[in-house]
């Protein structure tokens, strides 16, 4: 949950724990977007890798770098995330003609040879709240980064 959602009376969970994985893998692929985009580089949420041996590791998803506000509200706003590990995955218009977009981030597993028992998603409680549409695990190098000079589809 982000600060803006909280101020507006929206009640979303601050954490989701124990998403079962039960596998060793190189990369976590996250299909996501955000509500109320914050400053570029501000943490949105953390992904906590819970390993079978009891250890854990935390990686952050950041506004502007890994995900964008799902509505493109400003024609001068970035059209895609800036981090090399993230790309614009889909863009289209809703029933009112508002541009909507979703991003894909390839997050490296800090300990790829260790079995991940589960994942936790934990809000950074900043301006932006994450909207996670899907998670998948796999080998590295599957993300096809969009050409940053091409405008998103309308």
Give keywords.
154 residues, mainly beta, 4-stranded antiparallel β-sheet, 1 helix, disordered C terminus
Folded structure, characterized:
There is one protein chain. Residues 148-154 have low confidence and may be disordered. The protein has one helix at residues 3-7, and strands at 15-23, 27-35, 43-51, 56-62, 86-93, 99-108, 116-123, 129-138. A 4-stranded antiparallel sheet has the order 1-7-3-4, with no helix packed on it. It has a 4-stranded antiparallel sheet with strand order 5-6-2-8. The protein has one domain. It is mainly beta and 154 residues long. The two termini are 29 Å apart.
Number of domains: 1
Order of helices and strands: HEEEEEEEE
Give a quick account of the main beta sheet: strands, pairing sense, barrel closure.
4 strands, antiparallel
Average predicted local confidence, pLDDT: 89
The gist of it:
Helices cover 3% and strands 45% of the residues.
Write the layout of secondary structure elements.
Elements: H1 3-7, E1 15-23, E2 27-35, E3 43-51, E4 56-62, E5 86-93, E6 99-108, E7 116-123, E8 129-138
Antiparallel strand pairs: 1-7, 2-6, 2-8, 3-4, 3-7, 5-6
């Amino acid at each position: 949950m982000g600060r803006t959602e909280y101020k507006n009376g929206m009640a979303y969970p601050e954490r989701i724990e124990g998403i079962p994985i039960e596998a060793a893998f190189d990369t976590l692929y996250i299909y996501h977007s955000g509500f109320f985009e914050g400053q570029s580089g501000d943490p949105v949420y953390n992904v906590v890798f819970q390993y079978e041996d009891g250890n854990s590791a935390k990686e952050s998803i950041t506004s502007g770098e890994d995900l964008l506000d799902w509505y493109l509200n400003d024609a001068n706003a970035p059209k895609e995330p800036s981090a090399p590990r993230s790309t614009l995955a889909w863009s289209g218009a809703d029933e009112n003609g508002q541009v909507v977009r979703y991003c894909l981030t390839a997050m490296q597993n800090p300990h790829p040879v260790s079995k991940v028992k589960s994942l936790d998603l934990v809000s950074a409680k900043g301006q932006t709240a994450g909207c996670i549409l899907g998670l998948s695990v796999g080998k590295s190098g599957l993300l096809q980064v969009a050409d940053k000079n091409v405008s998103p589809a309308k």
